[in-house]
Amino acid sequence: MIINSSVNRRSFLKTTATAAASLGLIGAGGRAFAQEDTIKIASLLDLSGGLDAAGKPMQDAITFAVEEINQAGGLLGKQISLITYDTQTDMRLYPQYSQQAALKDKVSAVFGGITSASREVMRPVLRRLNTLYFYNTQYEGGVCDRNIFCTGITPAQKQSKHVPYAMNKWGKKIYTLAADYNYGQITAAWTRKYCTENGGQIVGEDFFPLDVTNFGSTIQKIQEAKPDFLYLVLVGGAHQSFYRQWAAAGMNKQIPMASTTMTIGGEQMVLSPEETNGILLCFNYFEALETPANKAFLERFHKRFGADYPYVTELAMATYQSVYLWAEGVKRAGTAERMPVIEALESGISLDLPSGKFSIDPQTHHCVMDINIGQIQDRKINILESFSQQQPLDTSGVCDLKKNPDDNSMYVIKV
Amino acid sequence: MDLLVVLSFEALKAVASLALISVGLAIIFGMMRVINLAHGEFLMLGGYAAIVATKAGINIWIATLLVSPLVVGVIGVVIERTIIRFLYGRPRDTMLATWGLSLLLVGLATTIFGNTTEGISAPAGSLQIGDYRIAAYSLIIIVIAIAVFAAIWAVFRFTRYGLIARSTMQNADMAAALGVNPSRVYAVTFGVGAGLAGLAGGVMAPITGIVPTIGAAYVAKAFITVIGGGPAILAGTVSASVMFGAIDQIITYLSTPVIGEVALLAAAVVLLRFMPQGITGRFFRRAA
């Protein structure tokens, strides 16, 4: 097998070299054309499959941002054209579409990926193909790569506020339920850290693959452990049934819940109010933010997508804002070429956006932002407390792209 | 003590769920020898029937207990008349045809409902057992499973249709010589099997939610249960459900849901290694 494959590899290299050369030619023509025409960006989001509830609002947000910028005259005098790929909650499609976006469409930047697993599939592909990448989901922190900008909220911004707040409110014993992949595992570790640092105790911790729908015996285990509250890091459509089964067992009136992911797929609109009332959330953005920028945004957004649009989610807002950050970078660089845009973004861009002041941290390529604690009541989210301008301290502890611009790691931060 | 009660109750619910999702296949595969790889999709259709009916304002009990089995039963008869009836006695072709059918049904459901998880809230509130609370709906699943098995047993044991169906499956030519129309019996029996799958799909929908691909999660378990059960379809399905459901639930409680599933599959492998004919191939041989 090995011998065969090396022979194949040689002929493979030959063909790919030819293909690459011809692609290069086509590309040159394409780029010349593009220079007069439009600046292209791509979105790779799950618009179907188990994660579609999270992906669809993100797609609406990026569409809206592009339309707004285009209506305001575009970028550098050109219109932005958005190329959309539906990754269908299928891990195989991420590298494939990333390659297509970079090689065939020759986009200036790619926006997307929802789970951390999908980001880690896309990131090396886009880095190798020199295509700028914006990842707009809250995640576990630790990505250190000059080619990517992460606009999502990380544990040092989120759990550091969320966990102590819930402990003050409800008590010191936590039971964690998390999705069984890097995001869930690492977020559970951060939860443990902030719990023990504040004198609390983790009385149980369970992990579930994304397709698990039966939580019956887990619910008994939780009752046996008698925690003061649940900390939920559940992801996707299948895990939604936890909230149903929890309420069906009448537990929603016994043990309160804090969740890191609830509402990012508009779950509060799908589940009944009894199933979601009282859940404690912590995000950068809530629709209830009383800033003029947010009110104006919501008015424009509802004019475009209808007054009955379910909810502008955290991930949708991060996506919307990431397009504005990128656009600001392009404006300052005077070009949509990758390196000048990265350098412009590293020069310390800070914008006043619907979620408040939003700045890029040049050292980590993560963002400095406001953090808000909210609670669900009858499908609405009320803001309970706000924390101004939080740094991505988790990632900045391990990552310094100023000192090591060639770093290309996903640090699993020891907590 | 309370914990023991609650845990046995959870185990019983797991057993009942397994028996419910397998019983339609027990009739179609166990009795008619049709390897129906679209069984999971019958369950999925039952789930969608229940959700659509509930959202259209029909009472949730009528939706899950009547609409689901009727809709899928009718679909089953149509499928039997258009596809399956040409394939009796050709297991390999049946397998291919039903596999294709399963892909088609997944595709159709995706087109109509979208590849999104849909769900309805479980009715019936909760029960307090000592310090613990459980969903009353779990109790209802157990009751439904018992009722379904009792009804099937009574129908096949005491009614004229039951007698004719059993004799037709044993020897279709002989039954035909005695004036029975085997083709009709096959169609009706297939419809009953499909309808039971639809019922299970409807009953499970409030617990699991429904996606077009959910059938994949059911079909393997159903086959394992029916094959593990062996030739006596009812006693076999029940005994295999008890064994696999209890193992799954106890291991899930002690570790995680993933290990629970692994334990179930491992138990099935071990069982079939020592009892290739299934549980009723060795025990309860004279059971129905």
UniProtKB/TrEMBL annotation, chain A:
The protein's name in its UniProt record: Transporter substrate-binding protein
Pfam family, one: Peripla_BP_5
Coiled-coil boundaries: none
Transcription is among the record's keywords: no
Signal peptide feature range: 1-34
InterPro entries attached to this UniProt entry: Peripla_BP_I, TAT_signal, TAT_signal_bac_arc
Organism: Aminobacter anthyllidis
Superkingdom in the source lineage: Bacteria
Keywords: Signal
CDD domains, per database record: PBP1_amide_urea_BP-like
Listed PANTHER family: ALIPHATIC AMIDASE EXPRESSION-REGULATING PROTEIN, PTHR47628
Automatic annotation (TrEMBL), chain B:
One Pfam family, short name: BPD_transp_2
The keyword Coiled coil appears for this protein: no
Keyword Transmembrane tagged: yes
Sorted UniProt keywords: Amino-acid transport, Cell membrane, Membrane, Transmembrane, Transmembrane helix, Transport
Record-level Gene Ontology MF annotations: transmembrane transporter activity
Cellular compartment(s): Cell membrane
Segments traversing the membrane: 12-30, 95-114, 134-156, 222-244, 250-275
Topology in membrane: Multi-pass membrane protein
Highest taxon, organism lineage: Bacteria
Signal peptide (residue range): none
Gene Ontology CC terms: plasma membrane
GO biological process, one term: amino acid transport
Family: Belongs to the binding-protein-dependent transport system permease family. LivHM subfamily.
Protein name per UniProt: Branched-chain amino acid ABC transporter permease
Species per Swiss-Prot/TrEMBL record: Aminobacter anthyllidis
Origin organism lineage: Bacteria, Pseudomonadati, Pseudomonadota, Alphaproteobacteria, Hyphomicrobiales
